[in-house]
UniProtKB/TrEMBL annotation:
<dbReference type="InterPro" id="IPR020578">
    <property type="entry name" value="Aminotrans_V_PyrdxlP_BS"/>
</dbReference>
<dbReference type="InterPro" id="IPR016454">
    <property type="entry name" value="Cysteine_dSase"/>
</dbReference>
<keyword id="KW-0663">Pyridoxal phosphate</keyword>
<keyword id="KW-0479">Metal-binding</keyword>
<comment type="similarity">
    <text>Belongs to the class-V pyridoxal-phosphate-dependent aminotransferase family. NifS/IscS subfamily.</text>
</comment>
<dbReference type="InterPro" id="IPR015424">
    <property type="entry name" value="PyrdxlP-dep_Trfase"/>
</dbReference>
<feature type="domain" description="Aminotransferase class V">
    <location>
        <begin position="3"/>
        <end position="370"/>
    </location>
</feature>
<dbReference type="InterPro" id="IPR000192">
    <property type="entry name" value="Aminotrans_V_dom"/>
</dbReference>
<dbReference type="InterPro" id="IPR015421">
    <property type="entry name" value="PyrdxlP-dep_Trfase_major"/>
</dbReference>
<protein>
    <recommendedName>
        <fullName>cysteine desulfurase</fullName>
        <ecNumber>2.8.1.7</ecNumber>
    </recommendedName>
</protein>
<dbReference type="GO" id="GO:0031071">
    <property type="term" value="F:cysteine desulfurase activity"/>
</dbReference>
<dbReference type="GO" id="GO:0046872">
    <property type="term" value="F:metal ion binding"/>
</dbReference>
<keyword id="KW-0411">Iron-sulfur</keyword>
<dbReference type="Pfam" id="PF00266">
    <property type="entry name" value="Aminotran_5"/>
</dbReference>
<dbReference type="GO" id="GO:0051536">
    <property type="term" value="F:iron-sulfur cluster binding"/>
</dbReference>
<dbReference type="InterPro" id="IPR017644">
    <property type="entry name" value="Cysteine_desulfurase_DndA"/>
</dbReference>
<keyword id="KW-0408">Iron</keyword>
């Protein structure tokens, strides 16, 4: 079967699996224990993984906090800032196209008395910077949380410009970078106003159940403190207690090492694959199709397409034995997509949209299957 649902999850690379196996079997020590080699081997493996991930993100390794994935990282960062600083400022700015793990966290905080501004987006899913600036001046927020790239339509947000605004106004900036790791240049070392980042390993060929919350060290006048979600033994600089899942961390480290080493080659390949798929779809379906995202300023390998007059669920079900596709997010597949609604699609557009999400494991000739449908 041709797997084209890589925004939902990716296949783990064999090298990643091989790197993990020793830590599931003979090297089973707890990295927080001391003095004997089983423990120190585990600790060294965790540290090495931390270095690889830090290199991919362009942060220091002690700014990496391991979590169970981006859902936890988003919850931990947003609730953690709200709890730590909420007495002084209860305004948060986010956008209408965020992942549910950001939106639902914001809804929860609204019930606790916070005010959340949900920014509109243009027809390609990008926020309006002028509007953000205007709102920031009118009612200075505690936190701006805007995703780096969208999981349904692939559009990229102007992260550097948002970070600049946040730095000027002394506001915390968090970005959900889950969909862009290994596909977009994510070195945050030069992005001065970015304080927090979330991601998950399984979106870049690592294992499921492991992710990272990056908490940058204090910058300018801002002390990047958060209240932890999980209290306990004090692992991860006291930000996330619990025994570390060493095998998963090692797997995420290997996936990050490979994503970093093969970055240029992977991006070039994904762009080539995407162009090939666009050409096939245009030739086959002509005027029936409309691309929901533009061709630039988007994540390589994610395309969202409306097939006018065709029911997306029916098409996907009919193809299910041959190609794995989705209408949009796997996280909220039973509801009409809030992302497609935010970019202005109505009932027919919502019912006819299909997301194709590619990966470097897809072979170009495999896409020719769409010529035969
Ligand atoms: N943010 C974005 C943009 C995502 O695409 C996802 C996964 N669909 C998440 C957060 C949550 O990741 P996880 O399910 O690994 O916690």
């Amino acid at each position: 079967m041709l797997y084209l649902d890589n925004s939902a999850t990716t296949q783990m690379l064999p090298e990643v699996k091989d790197s993990m196996l020793p830590y599931l079997l003979e090297e089973f020590g707890n990295p927080s224990s001391k003095y004997y080699s089983l423990a120190t081997n585990a600790k060294n493996a965790v540290n090495e993984a931390r270095e690889h991930i830090a290199k991919l993100i362009g942060c220091d390794s002690d700014e990496i906090i391991f979590t169970s994935g981006a859902t936890e990282s988003n919850n931990m960062i947003i609730k953690g800032i709200a709890d730590y600083y909420g007495e002084h400022n209860q305004h948060i700015i986010t956008s209408k196209v965020e992942h549910p793990s950001v939106l639902e966290t914001c809804h929860y905080l609204e019930k606790k008395g916070f005010t959340v501004t949900y920014l509109d987006v243009d027809s390609y899913g990008r926020i309006y910077l002028d509007k953000l600036k205007e709102i920031m001046l009118q009612s200075p927020p505690l936190l701006v949380s805007i995703m780096w790239g969208n999981n349904e339509i692939g559009s990229l947000q102007p992260i550097e410009e948002i970070a600049k605004l946040c730095a000027e106004q002394n506001v915390f900036f968090h970005t959900d970078a889950t969909q862009v790791m290994g596909k977009v240049f994510t070195d945050i070392s030069t992005i001065e106003g970015l304080h927090f980042l979330s991601c998950s390993a399984h979106k870049f060929h690592g294992p499921k159940g492991i992710g990272v919350a990056v908490i940058k060290k204090d910058r300018n006048n801002l002390k990047t403190k958060i209240t932890p979600l999980l209290h306990g033994g004090g692992q991860e600089n006291d930000y996330r207690s619990g025994t570390l899942p060493v095998h998963n961390i090692v797997g995420m480290g290997k996936a990050a090492q490979l994503a970093f080493a093969n970055f240029d080659q992977n991006v070039e390949y994904l762009l080539d694959l995407e162009n090939h798929l666009r050409m096939i779809l245009k030739a086959k379906f002509g005027d029936v199709i409309v691309f929901n995202s533009d061709e630039t300023k988007k994540i390589p390998g994610i395309i969202s397409v409306q097939f006018k007059g065709i029911n997306n669920e029916m098409l996907i079900k009919n193809l299910a034995g041959v190609v794995a596709l989705s209408t949009g997010s796997a996280c909220s597949s039973s509801k009409p997509s809030h992302v497609l609604q935010a970019i202005g699609l109505h009932a027919d557009g919502l019912r006819s949209t299909i997301r194709f999400s590619l990966s470097s494991l897809v072979k170009k000739e495999e896409l020719d299957i769409f010529k035969q449908l």
